[in-house]
Amino acid sequence: MKKGPAKPRIVIIGAGFAGAWTAKYLQRKLRDSAEIELINQVNYFVFQPLLPEVTSGTISAQDAVTPLRQMVPGVRFRMAEVLDIDFDRQRIDLLQGSKRRLISIDYQHVVIACGQSEARDLLPGLSEHALSLKDVADAHHLRNVLIDRLEHADITSDPQLKQRLLTLVVAGGGFSGIETIGEVSEMLRRILRYYPNVQAHEVRGILLQRDARILPEMPPQLAAYAHRQLLRRGVEIHLNTGLRAVSKGCVELDNGDMIAAATVISTIGNAPTAMIKKLEQQQRVHLQHGKLAVDRMLRLPQKNAWAIGDVALIPLTDNAQQKSDYAPPTAQFAVREAQCLSANICATLKGEQCHPFHYRPRGSLASIGHYKAVGEVFGVRVSGLLAWSIWRGFYMLMLPQFVTQVRVALNWFFDYFMPRSVVQITTRGESCTRNVLYRAGETIFAAGQMVDGHYTIVEGEVELRRDNESACVLKAGAYMGSYMHQDTATKIELVAKTDCKLLTLRNADVTRLSQAIPALQKHFQQPS
Fold first, then answer.
1. What is the largest distance, in Å, between two alpha-carbon atoms of the chain?
2. Sheet containing 263-266, strands listed edge to edge, beginning at the edge strand earlier in sequence
3. Higher confidence at residue 240 or residue 414?
4. If you write DSSP's letter for every residue of 6-33 in order, what string do you get?
């Protein structure tokens, strides 16, 4: 029996708004005529506009995420980390599984929709001390931090410590910063009654904005309305002011002022992901303003390669030059880009002509908390309760599953009548070092596996094998791991010769120790 022609494989990297909706549209259009594979490092889609409400406790964390296997049925999902893309061979290298094995898959078309990462190295101390709000884990952590600050402020007798604990600084006055400070201030206002030793006037919420006004993406009248509403709720707004540095309990402004603050939230700065940086360093892609430059059809210069979403710089006109000539990094645009891209991939498979991306946005909305929002919808400016109702209705329709829409609607309804919870649910902190036990014969480190840390034998013996043959036996006190190349898979295999105990140290911790203590560099960079 003869086999039919192989189905074209379309691989989508990233499952944000751009990637997930591309998978949905392609599955609808192609169904069984193509193999569609979606790759993401986690198995869920994050509805990022709702993260501030997860922080404030308005909705639960599970309602801001959707399992990808349920969201895109019929699409093959792979939870993995993409390391490299070989455009010439049309091959993708990735890590998958608990052993982080390096494998390669081929594609006929590749869609890069991995978004961007945070630029955590913009300012001194930003990566060490500033919190972010990119994922549901960030929202959960921020909520725990805020409640923790109130718990300690309620019992301390040190006035300076209390002031620092009750001071919150949000850097960035765009959509993310405004919605974050709005929801957080509303949360604190509603739960202060449970903390008798904390008065409302003692809580300081500070918003820093480098521009001359907040919400520069919106008309000045709406930005002014949001500004007034935040001031009425006690938020301090510093315009034409940015961060210079962040420390454990203090922030330094670019005008030289110092503010004692225990909590700093950063909504500023995006950067290419590690994979995109690697491709640029190897001169396989070209970045413009930190993004992949595509044409109006959403194509990269490489064969059968496409890019959309935050990772791509998408022109809206033929001679794009100004910032307004490019698609903004919003969910509204990402979904429309996915629709255009799926149509263009289908046209390419059929040998037909692609069409340029064009989209006129319906408007923009920003919640400022306390049942108020600002926005412009179809050219009409709205604010207050009406804008807030439209904002919630719009996002309700965008939620990917009906059951999620129902749960979120119920949460919003009950939040109006019921008190906010002050439960602090923390996860167990993971130590940077840990002991791992292996029985004789168990594989510790397999050939083809990426190096994920530094290993020191505490008890027992370990056999080192090359090409399935024994090379040597390592005993207690021997160490190995981090001297190997961290960006390539190893060709050796470590197997427990006897029952043994190993002390493991993660690569990130190895790097920090080596940089801080030069005497340890030699220890970590070569085998025992």
1. 83
2. 235-239, 204-209, 167-171, 263-266
3. 240
4. PPPEEEEE--SHHHHHHHHHHHHHHGGG
Phi/psi region, residue 145 (left: phi>0; alpha: psi -120 to 50; beta: rest), is alpha
Strand ranges in 216-359 using DSSP code E only, listed in sequence order: 235-239, 243-246, 250-253, 258-260, 263-266, 270-271, 287-288, 291-293, 305-307, 312-313
What length does the chain have? 528
pLDDT at 479 over 70: yes
Q: CA 126, 132, 137, 143 torsion: positive or negative?
A: positive
| CB half-sphere exposure, 267, CA atoms < 13 A | 23
398-402: which pairs have CB atoms within 8 A and are 24 or more residues apart?
398/47, 398/331, 398/335, 399/47, 399/66, 400/20, 400/45, 400/47, 400/66, 400/71, 401/66, 401/70, 401/71
Encode pLDDT of 36-88 as tens digits: 999 999 999 999 989 999 999 888 888 899 999 999 999 999 999 999 999 99
pLDDT per position as a tens digit, 171-211: 999 999 999 999 999 999 999 999 999 999 999 999 999 99
Q: At which residue do the structure tokens 């009750």 appear?
A: 166
pLDDT at 322: 87
Three-class secondary structure of residue 161 per DSSP: helix
For range 361-381, the mean pLDDT: 88
- Place 487 in a pLDDT band, splitting at 50, 70 and 90: very low
Neighbouring C-beta atoms of residue 354, cutoff 10 Å: 18
* 18 Cα distance to chain centroid: 14
First-to-last C-alpha distance (Å) of the chain: 57
CA of 226: how far to CAs of 100, 181, 213, in Å? Answer: 47, 11, 10
Q: Is 367 exposed, middle or buried, given 0-12, 13-18 or 19+ CB atoms closer than 10 A?
A: buried
How many C-beta atoms surround the C-beta of residue 95 within 10 A?
18
Query: Are the C-beta atoms of residues 305 and 112 closer than 8 Å to each other?
Result: yes
b/e per residue 174-194 (b: at least 16 CB within 10 A): bbbbbbbbbbbbbbbbbbbee
What is the C-alpha separation between 92 and 110, in angstroms, rounded?
9
Residue 22's closest CA among 305, 244, 340? Answer: 340
CA distance 454 to 510: 7
For the entire predicted model, the pTM comes to 0.88
Helices then strands, counting H and E runs in the chain, come out as: 14, 32
Task: Output the DSSP codes for 463-489.
Answer: EEEETTEEEEEE-TT-EESTTS-TTSB
Provide DSSP, 353-392: ----------EEEEEEETTEEEEEETTEEEEHHHHHHHHH
Mean model confidence pLDDT for the chain: 89
Residue of 372, 413, 400 lying closest to 179 (CA atoms)? 372
pLDDT of 3: 54
pLDDT > 90 in the chain, percent = 62
* Separation between Cα atoms, residue 229 and residue 210, nearest integer Å: 20
- For residues 152 and 165, the answer to whether their CB atoms sit within 8 Å is yes
pLDDT for the residue 523: 67
Per-residue DSSP letter, 429: P
